[in-house]
Amino acid sequence: MSDVFAKCRLPGTYQFVKDLGVYPYYRAIEERPGGAEVLIDGRVLVQAGSNDYLGLSGDDRVKEAAVEATRRLGTGGGGSRLSNGSLALHEELEARLAAFLGRAAAMVTSSGYLANLALAALVGPEDTVIGDRLIHACLIDAVRLGGARLRRYRHNDMDHLERLLGACDPGAGRLIVTEGMFSTSGGVCDLPGIARLARAHGARVALDSAHDVGVLGASGRGAAEHHGLEDAVDVQTVTFSKALGTVGGAVAGPEEIIAYLRHYARSMVFTAALPPACAAAALAALDVVAAEPERRHRLRAAARRLSGELAAMGYGVVPSDRPVMAVPVGDDLLCFRLWRELFDEGVFATAMVAPGVPPGQALVRVSITAAHTEAHLDRIASAFAAARRMRLIPET
């Protein structure tokens, strides 16, 4: 008889990487002395891996809203939204989100992961979900939970998507799933192509706007607004842990779809309600997003500057105004060594290896936020220049 726990063994490379001193994960942050700095092991480093794109997690207005809500309503809801955990604050946030996104209704969940997992209730064994190769793990988990057939098209490859749609069972429901701005590369989905193919094949479209809401679009509504194709998206999910600076998530779409999810989405029905502090913080963050578009402009200008500098150094970065930059490395160990060189130079970036990225495509992810000053950008660029002198990875 086999032991169910027998599989719970880390690979030998884990201890090897630890012994080399290049293990990049679970580094404990002791303090956040500034919006773009962290204290680790007594050292102040530039935070260059955060998803806090607009720097709102440290904004005094957002923090005070969370504190006031905690004083008034406590630290938790005491139950699921369905049973006894719903607050007027949740409903206020849902109304504000729906209006902001231009959707008929919205449903607030306890995390962005749970918002995407709620999509499982929309599909079943008779349906086919066609997802971009780079969609987030929680979207894959949603398809598995729903029992639908999953097909993956090559990243932003509309010819491949068209072939997969054409190969679907004529009687199957079809849902195309994509991220608005992809979390590993900062690239934006080809929504015009997706919208055209969805219309031609009778497919619905679900857009995960975790990383693009607050960042893209004239009003910060995300990739759909950026492309001028908000009506082409049937269901939109968002997370509060990126540009909104707190924790939580939401699904937005037609009234009847959201009402259905409120009663049938397991990730909504069977989990505790979003804490009052997070709901209030998200509301305050929405106010800032609407009132201060200059944060987006500053963010994107900083991204243009740094991505251009990294490309000029010979790193395989595509210059753009997207706040996420993927520095391709390929080999896992080289990725960890590059991460460590940056860390030693005072920059805290993110090392990404499989399964976060495809095997053999390890990369260092750099994220820019509106809190980064020119001095912070200088430090990041200097750290990459120092790492380049180590010749860890070849020039592209």
TrEMBL record:
Keywords: Aminotransferase, Pyridoxal phosphate, Transferase
Residue ranges of coiled coil: none
Broad class of enzyme this protein falls into: transferase
Signal peptide annotation: none
PROSITE patterns assigned to the protein according to its UniProt record, in alphabetical order: AA_TRANSFER_CLASS_2
Pfam family, one: Aminotran_1_2
InterPro entries: Aminotrans_II_pyridoxalP_BS, Aminotransferase_I/II_large, AON_synthase_class-II, PyrdxlP-dep_Trfase, PyrdxlP-dep_Trfase_major, PyrdxlP-dep_Trfase_small
UniProt GO molecular function: 8-amino-7-oxononanoate synthase activity; pyridoxal phosphate binding; transaminase activity
Enzyme Commission number(s): 2.3.1.47
Reaction equation(s) it catalyzes: 6-carboxyhexanoyl-[ACP] + L-alanine + H(+) = (8S)-8-amino-7-oxononanoate + holo-[ACP] + CO2
SUPFAM superfamilies the UniProt entry points to: PLP-dependent transferases
Family stated for the protein in its record: Belongs to the class-II pyridoxal-phosphate-dependent aminotransferase family.
Protein name per its UniProtKB record: 8-amino-7-oxononanoate synthase
Source organism (scientific name): Nonomuraea rhodomycinica
Taxonomic lineage from the root: Bacteria, Bacillati, Actinomycetota, Actinomycetes, Streptosporangiales
